[in-house]
Amino acid sequence: MLTQAIPYGVAQLIQPLFVHPLVNTFHFTLASYTLIFTFGAVVGSIVSPFVGKALQKVNFKLLYIIGIVLSAGAYVIFGISTKLPGFYIAGIVCMVGSTFYSGQGVPWVINHWFPLKGRGVALGLAFCGGSIGDIFLQPITQEILKHFMTGNTKTGHLTSMAPFFIFAAILLIAGLIIAAFIRVPKPTEALASKDEVKENKKVAHEKAAHEFQGWTGKQVLKMKWFWIFSIGFMIIGLGLASLNEDYAAFLDTKLSLTEVGIIGSVFGVAGIVGNISGGYLFDKFGTAKSMTYAGIMLIISILMMIFISFHPYDSRISLYAGMGWAITSGLSVFSYMSGPAFMAKSLFGSKAQGVNLGYISLAYAIGFAIGAPLFGVIKGITNFTIAWCFTIGFVTIGFILLVIAAIRIKDIQKQMVADKPEIVLDK
User: Fold this and answer.
1) What is the pLDDT of residues 5-64, one digit of tens each?
2) Which of 230, 253, 286, 333 could form a disulfide with 427 if both were Cys (CB 3.0 to 4.6 A apart)?
3) Residue of 412, 388, 374 lying closest to 30 (CA atoms)
4) 185 DSSP assignment
5) Quick one: CA dihedral 276, 280, 283, 287, positive or negative?
6) DSSP symbol at 211
């Protein structure tokens, strides 16, 4: 949880807050600068499997420290860069570093400490750390930026690159302290008794006997509704990229840095609630209904952004609408955080859950990688209002395709098990 709150929070969650100051300072276009998120996402997804293999062979703590050093070093590169290629390199290095200690590192530790029971709860609590970090990192970042900026948030520029060196130090120190304590269990440490292991295997065997096994990875690729589902999730990624990465750049043109920081904190709190409640929604109502709810929340959040775009700088109503964005957007985070893992098993079965999860995650990653620069291009040609209208279109179309595909896939499941009453389908 601490890893997600501080090292990961600094490495990834506060980066959008620097977009507007940097664009103003170095006269970049929004579209050209936000390519930083595209390059980071693409390279990070390529590196991730190799990091996963390295964790099986190399000491975990060593890899954790390497990741911390890479991310902290990336902030130093941010601090000395003046041209776009330098910022692109920094973004890539930062993302690769976070893969070591967060993307692959956190699940690796949790899986070792919770080999039988409680793994899902532990993972959920660990990844809630990012939302907790948002609560205090967002306002802290905005206050630090205020001391090193001149002018207002809309037209102001940085007078010093010191904030990047400050956060490099925070990330490095916090990461090394956590690394001193974090570890995987020793071979001699028994995490469960022999009776518990035996009982767990028995329960798992009985569950598997009554579980919908689903399709292999190759079979899934031949399913029409899988492709419609994936295209929908990819289009959702197009919309969510701008909502997650460009919200600060937009709000900076309408509100003070302090107010934007407060909104970020509210988003962090709502994200905690969203992550926790999302698991309940998936278990209780299944994919189609849960994702419909998430889609409605996201559409409302984008409507808040469109509403804000019509009001002048420092309008009080914009602050309230910003709070509305933070709450509705935060409540929907489960749709793209825990959602892919749940949907992979619920829709396509347990036979090739890991492979199918990879397909689903890749679809979203492609959309997300394209979405941020695309939003910048649209905004550059038109304005924020039109860009947000495109975003709401992407999200609406994406969720409609995804929900329809989920319903049809469930229908196919029911047809397959119609003559097998002993099989129990997930929701």
Assistant:
1) 899 889 988 888 888 889 889 988 877 888 888 888 888 878 877 887 788 888 889 999
2) 286
3) 374
4) P
5) negative
6) B
